[in-house]
Amino acid sequence: MSTPIQAYAAMAAKQALQPFEYTPGPLGEGQVEIAVESCGICHSDLSMLDNEWGMTTYPFVPGHEIVGRIVAVDDHAKRHKPGDRVGLGWYSSSCGSCACCLSGSQNLCALAGGTIVGRHGGFASRVRSHWTWVSPLPEALEAASAGPLFCGGITVFNPIVQCGVQPTDRVAVIGIGGLGHLALKFLRAWGCEVTAFTSSGLKRQEALSLGAHQTLDSRDSSELAKAAGSFDFILNTTNVGLDWNSYIAALKPKGRLHTVGAVLEPMAIAAFPLIMGQRSVSGSPLGSPATVDTMLEFCARHRIAPVTESFPLSRVNDALDHLRSGKARYRVVLTNDLSN
Q1: How far is it, in rounded angstroms, from Cα 244 to Cα 295?
Q2: CA–CA distance, 200 with 220 (Å, rounded to integer)
Q3: If you average pLDDT over residues 161-172, what whole number do you get?
Q4: DSSP assignment of 88-122, as one string?
Q5: Dihedral Cα 68, 9, 114, 69, nearest 10 deg
Q6: Residue 211: which residues within 8 A CB-CB, separation 6 or more?
Q7: What is the dihedral of CA 78, 80, 82, 131, to 10 degrees?
Q8: DSSP letters along 311-325, please?
Q9: What is the pLDDT of residue 298?
C-alpha cells in the first residue's frame, strides 16, 4: 500500500498554495519514488501556477528541481536503489521507442512527460519518476543547493554541448539572473572568453565575480554597435522581446544567437544579416539524461554550484512572492520540513 504524500498545491490559477495530501497508488512500471530533501523554484513553476501556457491541471503541485533519496524502486527500474541521493528535473518520462529516444535525445521526445504537467511535482514529501530521468548526485555537490542544476543548470549547459561551443570561442550571455548566472559559470569553466550583457549597472561586479571577463550595457546602443562582429555564440536567457538584430550584428560570421528564454512574442529578425554572415538563430529545451550526467560531472570537477537562497517548504508562498518580486539572488530553494 502506497504512503500518502504531503504537499502544497494551488486549487486554481494564481491562488496561494495550501496543504494538500494525495495517495499516489502503486509504483508504475520502471518508476522510482524519491523522498524530497529540497526543491528549487523556477519561473516555470510560476508560469504553470498561473496557467500562462494553458496546460496546467488543478490541484497543482509545483516543483521540478528536486534533490532527495530513493525510497522505493519498481522491479523494472534500473540504475537506482533505495538510499541513493538523486536529482530530478523538468522531465520525468519519455516513450523510449521513438527516433529521438533511441538516438539519446529523449528530451526531444514528442511524448516526453513533464514532472509538473498533468501530475504532482516536488513541493511535496515525495515524488515519482521513471528511472531514466533520475540522475545520481555526485558526492562533491552540495545536496542543499544542487536542485536548480536540474532545470536552470541543464537549460544553459545543454546548448553549450549541442551547439559545439569551443574553449577558444568568444561568447556572451544576455540576462544575468537564475539562468544567466549559471551560464557565466559554465562558460568560464569551459574556457571561453565571456561577456555579460546586463541592463543593470548594479549587476556589473556580480557578473564579473560569477565568471564574466567583461560586461556590456544592453541598454546602450553605442556599446552594442561597438560589439559588432565580436562573438561566436550569444546565449539569451531572458523571456522578453529585445532588439534581436543588434545582437545578430554582434555575431561573427557563422556565429549563433541561441535562446533558452521563453520569449512569448515573435522575434523580428532581418534575413540579410543571417544570409550574408551565415549566422544562425536557434533554441533548445533542457537536456537528455546523458547530458544531465555530463553537467553534474562538470560541476563536480569545477566546483560549480548555483547561488541560492533558502526557505522552508512550509513558507512556500513567501518564497514564491520573493521570486515574483525579482529579488531572488539567484535561485530559491525550498528545504523539506514536511513529514515523509
Answers
A1: 29
A2: 11
A3: 98
A4: E-SEEE--SSSHHHHTT-GGG-TTPEETTSSS--S
A5: 10
A6: 184, 185, 187, 188, 189, 194
A7: -70
A8: EEGGGHHHHHHHHHT
A9: 98
Rg (CA), the chain: 20
Task: Convert the pLDDT of each residue in 274-297 to its tens digit.
Answer: 999 999 999 999 999 999 999 999
Contact predicate 67/86, CB 8 Å: yes
Query: Do the domains 5-148+306-335 and 154-283 sit in the same CATH topology, yes or no?
Result: no
Contacts of 181 (CB under 8 A, 6+ apart): 206, 210, 306, 307, 330
CATH class for the domain made up of 154-283: alpha beta
For the chain, the structural domain boundaries read 5-148+306-335, 154-283
Choices 3.90.650.10, 3.30.300.30, 3.40.50.1240, 3.90.180.10: CATH for 5-148+306-335: 3.90.180.10
Give the per-residue pLDDT at 339.
Answer: 72
- Which residues 6+ apart lie within 8 Å of 328 measured at CB? 178, 309, 322
DSSP assigned state of 54: S
Could you tell me which residues are beta bridge partners of residue 234?
Answer: 172, 257
Whether the pTM exceeds 0.90: the reply is yes
Please report, for residues 129, 174, 268, 323, the alpha-carbon distance to residue 87 in angstroms, rounded to integers and kept in the order given: 10, 27, 38, 22
C-alpha cell of residue 197: 550583457
Count of residues in the chain: 340
Prior bond of 91 cis (ω within 30°): no
Question: In the chain, helix, strand, coil percent, each to 5?
Answer: 30, 25, 45
The residues, ordered by sequence, that sit 6+ positions from 291 with a Cβ below 8 Å of its Cβ are 107, 154, 157, 158, 161
Distance of CA 338 to the CA centre of its chain: 25
Mean pLDDT of the chain: 96
